[in-house]
Amino acid sequence: MARLKVGVLISGRGSNLQALLDACARPDFPAEIALVISNIDGAYGLERAAKAGIATAVISHGAFASRDSFDQAIDARLRQAGIELVCLAGFMRVLSAGFVEGWRGRIINIHPSLLPSFKGTHTHAQALASGVKLHGCTVHHVTAALDDGPIIVQAAVPVLPGDDEESLAARVLAAEHRIYPLALKMLAEGGGQKAPQEGALLINPPE
Ligand code: GRF
User: Fold this and answer.
1) I need a labelling partner for 2 at 20 to 30 A (CA). Which of 33, 159, 161, 179 fits?
2) pTM of the prediction?
3) Structural domains in the chain plus CATH codes
């Protein structure tokens, strides 16, 4: 079985990366992680990748004069490694329209809310402030607009009485770790190019 070659972009602790690494370690999983790139030197996710025997690279945004030249360096490294699908997993830089266009249909992201609600940062605080009773996470195709793009998989979790940002974030994160591998599997089985005909929705997935 030819496995889809995946590149993962991270900036931090990499718990979603870990969920993808664990899934890809299964012999029947249709994708493999070939490269992990971090824009932050010392990001814990780099250690997770190294432990799994995956090639890593640090491309620091601060070392580039412009967003475009930073994005071009990432693009070149991904293409050099023969990457077919890019997964953003806690990558805290906005990618330029040119970069996103170059990977159109082959770049996905995980966002900690039920999009289109609560784009941007502090999504759990936004959810608590709004009073919603249902919150969650979304894996979606990346387009030039922030936290936009066709939805592939969502998971919904309840907002419980007494929740604070931390407890809600933990419940959502456990769901993230379920749906990112699921979305990757769905795309890899479809050749990694296009959105599946039907996505998936998990309601309150067990941890
Ligand atoms: C996750 O909540 C993800 O949804 C968001 O950034 C966070 C990254 O966490 N985009 P981790 O680095 O995967 O642990």
Assistant:
1) 179
2) 0.94
3) 4-203 (3.40.50.170)
